[in-house]
Amino acid sequence: MRDIECVGEGLFLSTCNRVEALFTTEAAGEAKKSVISLLSGLGNMPEEKFSSSLYTFEDRDAVMHVFRVASSLDSMVVGEPQILGQIKEAYAQATIQKTSGVILNRLMHRAFHVAKRVRTETEICEAAVSISYAAVELAKKIFHVLDGKKVLLIGAGEMAELAARHLMTHGVSKMVVANRTFERAVQVAELFNGSPVSFDEIGAQLLEVDIVVTSTSAPEYVITHELVKKSLRKRRNRPLFFIDIAVPRDVEPAVNHLENVYVYDIDDLKGVIELNMAQRQQEAIKAERIVQEEVVKFEKWLKTLEVVPTIISLREKVESIIQVELKKSSSALDGLTPSQNKAIRGLTRSIAEKVINDPIVYLKGKADRPSLNMYLDVTRMLFKLDEDNGDADK
Hints:
Elements: E1 7-14, E2 19-25, H1 28-43, H2 47-50, H3 59-70, H4 82-96, H5 102-121, H6 131-143, E3 150-154, H7 158-169, E4 174-178, H8 182-191, E5 195-197, H9 202-205, E6 211-214, H10 225-235, E7 240-244, E8 261-265, H11 266-304, H12 308-328, H13 330-333, H14 338-365, H15 372-382
Parallel strand pairs: 3-4, 3-6, 4-5, 6-7, 7-8
Antiparallel strand pairs: 1-2
């Protein structure tokens, strides 16, 4: 994007389901065409092939979009945290490539701030919306805390591994892995610093473990009513929790009728997810309000940029006058000591700064008013900011 003349600052964001180009420009139409052409070249795809998938946001809408994306309000799964890391990576690349400036720097940092507010002021990230994490949520409801609990993982599918990983991060102390192929059990056990066991040892393990996660492709039940009933006599009423995420089911439904035994299959977990998704949508309403509030703040800051050139000109005019007047008085100042000379120069600059402080504060206060341009014009005329500074000595 650096080579596109009409683009001031810019970055690319790429995720599993979106590619976005974010940039500043004074020529929106020309810049949009150039960036789309660039995307076409990068993807080696004619523009007409992806034009139906394009979306464009400008000005306030663009700021709103960036804040919503960073807050995971525009994600496939509302509340997922991964997108924020991807935005930070995109911004890091832009800073390395020096394509980010005053506006994008401010926008990105405000986006990170908005995302943090949404996470801390709402519960949009709290409710589990994945099968694996929903299983952990249910386990915590039964055991309250998972510290010190022992897990038996039966099967080595991706979903089972994810559930096991979530359980480990929530305090589970030990993992035992059983698989029909013992070599695979060894591989998965190594991932969790656990112990591999054979399929024939499942019955014995039911005496020891607290949680069983099962996800095999077996056509018949792996965990039967009789198998669990035998283990209960020696468990001394300790709860046993089954997470059955296999299709077809690994755990015989009758197991759920045994005392102190809890069985949740994939349909139960999907029910939890649906409830949690509804909860996230409620929290998203609060998050949208936070985003709107922050958009207003950013817009106000953006408008102050229109004041900056006039403020800079005013300061330069004052500095020019100071230098001219000090030069005129140089012969009188030569007799002073260095500390006296420094004090005179400091006093001169302090007086000048105080004189222009009120006009500067006033201009900043008018930054978000429709009449701003009138105030800027009046200021430039009053202080003759558009005349040659060489006139300062007249």
